[in-house]
Amino acid sequence: MRPILNRLAFMLILTLYSSAGGFRVGGSIGYYSVADSIYKNTYGSGNFIYGGSLSYDLLRSVEIRGEVGYFRDKGEMTLTQEEIKFSMIPVAIGLRARLVKIRKLSPYLGAGVDFYSFKERARLGDTSDSTFGFHIEGGSYIALGKGFHIDLNLRYVKADAQPFDETINLGGWRAGVGVGYSF
Q1: CB 157 within 8 A of CB 172
Q2: Number of domains forming the structure of the chain
Q3: S-S: 84 plus which of 44, 70, 122, 140, CB 3.0-4.6 Å?
């Protein structure tokens, strides 16, 4: 899987440096609700996710975007009630198309491919694995002036993993807000 991630990162960097346009860098915080029912029974409905992003305007209204996030949650084992911890690092590469510009608002639609590395820690042992998925999203940039903007975003993620014999749905809904700077 590392060769695939290296190729995706290389393609992103090559694209960023190959043509003229604007860069955008930002940070975000959001709420990620994991869809899996077993996950919900163990950890609850979800938790905060933090992230950073770098994007580049390929065309006037289309940007390529790379981002990395960090998600952590804490729960209890079903039978023993012992503490169990879950962490996940999502890495995504995608495109966003800005639809129109209405004063300071720039609504967009987007889609991309995601790579999820996750780990579950319990007293009985740790489990770690990774999987690929995809996302679709919608949101809007809100210009603040002097290159700064706010990014309001709603994303649906589809990512299934099979660390053992059963499938775990790590996807779900993510709603977030970010702050960025364009240059």
Answers
A1: yes
A2: 1
A3: 122
Whether the Cβ atoms of residue 167 and residue 161 lie closer than 8 Å to each other: yes
**Through-space distance between the first and last CA atoms of the chain, rounded to whole angstroms:** 33
Residue 14's pLDDT is: 56
- CA-to-CA distance for 27 and 66, rounded, in angstroms? 12
Closest by CA to 130, choosing from 97, 88, 92, is: 88
The CATH number given to whatever domain includes residue 93 is 2.40.160.20
Segments forming the whole domain that contains residue 109: 22-182
List pLDDT tens digits, range 102-122: 999 999 999 999 999 999 898
